[in-house]
Amino acid sequence: MNAITRLGSFTITPLQPTIGAEIGGLDLRAPITDEVRDALKQALLRHKVLFFRDQIIDTHQQAAFANRFGPLYTHPSTHRSPAIPSAHAISAEEFKTYAADYDTRRQGWDAYHTDTSWRLVPTWGAVLRAVNLPEQGGDTIWVDGARALETLPDDARARLEGLHVTHDFGSSLKRAGHEYPIVAHPAIRTHRETGQKILWVNFSLRPTLIGLDIAESRELLTIVSDQYRRPENQVRFSWRPGSLAFWDNRAAVHYAVRNYGDFPRLLERILIADEPLYADL
C-alpha cells in the first residue's frame, strides 16, 4: 500500500517509486495560498507529475491555479479559448492534423514527447484538465527522464553525452502563420532546479542527433525510445471526470494512449512559461 504523507492542508500519495503522486485534500475552485503553492512546487520537483481527482473546475479556475506557478504561455498553433488564450484544446481531432505532419511511427518510435521543446527555452510546467472523456481508454503515460537515463546502458549513455537533438515543429508553425528557427537541446539535459540529469527527446517532432549520420542517429534514438517504453520508468494515469494533471515539463516526457476509436476526447491544457529571465527566448 502506498504511503500517504500529509503536508499542511493536503496529502501526497506516491504512485510509483520515482514518478507520480496523487494530491488529496485540496479544492482548486478556491485560490491556493502561497504556502500551499510552495509545498506543491516541492512535491512536483520530487514526483515530476501530480494528479488531482474530483476537481470540478472551469477554464478560469484552471488558469488561476496554473498562474500561481508562473506566467502563462500562449501556444501559437493550437486551438485556444477565446476568453483565455493560454488555454489550449487537446482534442482527438487536432491530433489527426498534427499526426499527418509528424508520423514518427515510420521510424518505429512512439510519440513520447515534451511540450514546446521546439523553443529555445521550453515551457517548464503544464496543467491538463479532463473535459470530455471516453468510458474506457485514453490514459496518459509520463516517463521519468532521470530514471530513463540512470537505467540506460553505459555505452549508450557515453555515446549520447555531449550530443544535441533538434526538434522540428516547422510544419505546424507555418500552417498557423508563424516562424521559429530550428533549435537544438542537449539529449542529456540538466534540470535547472534539481540538478538531475534528464534523458530528454521529443519523438513527436522528427528528432535528429546533430553530428551523426542518419543511421547512427536513428540507432541511438531508438535506444532512447526503448527506455521511455519501459514500464518501470513510467506512471500511467486513467482519466475520470474532475481529473487534473500538473507536471514538470523539464523532468518528464509523456504519451497519450489513443485507444478510444472515434470518440471526441477533449482535454484542456495550460502551459507555464519559464522564469521571466528566460521566457521570451
Number of helices: 8
Helix fraction bin: 25-40%
Q: What is the annotated CATH architecture?
A: 4-Layer Sandwich
Overall residue-averaged pLDDT value: 90
* Name given to the CATH homologous superfamily: Clavaminate synthase-like
Sketch the topology as an H/E string, one letter per element. Answer: EEEHEHEEHEEHHEHEEEEHEEEEH
Specify the CATH class. Alpha Beta
- Spatial gap, N to C terminus: 44 Å
Describe the sheet with the most strands.
Answer: 9 strands, mixed
Keywords: Dioxygenase, Iron, Metal-binding, Oxidoreductase
GO molecular function, one term: 2-oxoglutarate-dependent dioxygenase activity
InterPro entries: AtsK-like, TauD-like_sf, TauD/TfdA-like
Pfam family, one: TauD
Q: Can you describe this structure in just a few lines?
A:
It is built from 8 helices and 17 strands. It is an alpha+beta fold and 281 residues long. It is globular.
List the helices and strands and how they pair.
Elements: E1 5-7, E2 10-14, E3 21-24, H1 34-47, E4 49-52, H2 59-67, E5 72-73, E6 87-91, H3 92-101, E7 125-132, E8 140-144, H4 145-150, H5 154-160, E9 164-166, H6 170-175, E10 184-186, E11 188-190, E12 197-199, E13 208-209, H7 214-229, E14 234-237, E15 244-248, E16 252-256, E17 266-272, H8 276-279
Question: What does this molecule look like?
Answer:
- With 281 residues, the protein is α+β, with helices and mostly antiparallel strands.
- Helix content is 26%, strand content 25%.
- It has one domain (5-273): Clavaminate synthase-like (Double-stranded beta-helix, 4-Layer Sandwich), CATH 3.60.130.
- The protein has helices at 34-47, 59-67, 92-101, 145-150, 154-160, 170-175, 214-229, 276-279; strands at residues 5-7, 10-14, 21-24, 49-52, 72-73, 87-91, 125-132, 140-144, 164-166, 184-186, 188-190, 197-199, 208-209, 234-237, 244-248, 252-256, 266-272.
- The strands form four sheets. Strands 1, 2, 3, 4, 5, 6, 7, 15 and 17 form a nine-stranded mixed sheet that branches. The protein has a three-stranded antiparallel sheet with strand order 14-8-16.
- The longest helix has 16 residues, at 214-229.
